[in-house]
Amino acid sequence: MLAIIGKDIVASLRTLIGGEIKEYTEMMAESREEALERMVKNAESPGANAITDVRFLTSMVMSNSSEILAYGTAVVVIPNQ
Fold first, then answer.
1. 73, 42 Cβ separation under 8 angstroms
2. Mind listing the pLDDT tens digit for each residue in 8-40?
3. How far is CA 48 from CA 1, 3, 40, in A?
4. Beta strands of 1-81 (E only): which ranges?
5. Where are the domains of the chain?
6. Bridge partner list, 71
7. What's this model's pTM, rounded to 2 decimal places?
8. Which of 1, 32, 65, 67, by CA, is between 20 and 30 Å from 59?
């Protein structure tokens, strides 16, 4: 938790200077990976072995807060015999 607060403080200072805010870029990348992992788990639980039409959606939840959603269609792929 303290690491996130520290990143927020550094990021806030960087917004004054301009350019990429690497702390937020890292947090968004981590969030994207977490969303992808959750999507895969949700697809595997009913027995799917593949996901098609994967999409990522990013939206702002409130000031200085955003979310990343990963969604797709869980399918069962049967190899050719």
1. no
2. 666 666 666 767 778 788 888 999 999 999 999
3. 35, 37, 9
4. 50-62, 65-75
5. 24-81
6. 55
7. 0.69
8. 1
